[in-house]
């Protein structure tokens, strides 16, 4: 009877910290084994418990509870094994092993995007250079056309003045001829009319 009582008390004392620890931590929280090293998976919250295996650094685990006395954390590892590991090696941050492939992919994508942007920039530079050349040619053509237009305008003004002078000269000649004819006609002797007489 005494033996059973002592066994019951020992079991109660052993299970009391585990029950308290389970009430302190939320269950099902995702965390990670830190990158420092691999850690052993124990059957209980301490190194004196049987080793069930090891958990690779960086592995994703589900935290079930934490034993505040030993700072051991009960987890479910990536192989669906339930056991305890030292809480020092459990981190809420993703491990480098998890982050590096994603970062490498991001770096590869960024490098590819940079290369594509550099190619696009080079194409835009070439197009800009071609547009500048075309603009220079068009500017020269415009200047030539403006000079031709000014020359034509000058020639047109000169032709207009020449035409006006010609009309003025012709008008003056016609007026002079008319005046001369008028004077000549005025001084021509007039013929006398024969008087009608009856024989």
From TrEMBL:
Subcellular location(s) per record: Membrane
InterPro entries cross-referenced by the UniProt entry: SH3-like_bac-type, SH3_dom_pro
Gene Ontology annotations for the cellular component aspect, listed alphabetically: membrane
Signal peptide region: 1-23
Primary subcellular site in the record, as a coarse category: membrane
Domain SH3b: from-to ranges: 28-94
Superkingdom of this protein's organism: Bacteria
Pfam families in alphabetical order: SH3_3
Coiled-coil regions, chain positions: 107-162
Residues passing through the membrane, by range: 167-189
Topology in membrane: Single-pass membrane protein
Alphabetically ordered keywords of this record: Coiled coil, Membrane, Signal, Transmembrane, Transmembrane helix
Record NCBIfam families: SH3_and_anchor (TIGR04211)
Protein name: SH3 domain protein
Gene: ygiM
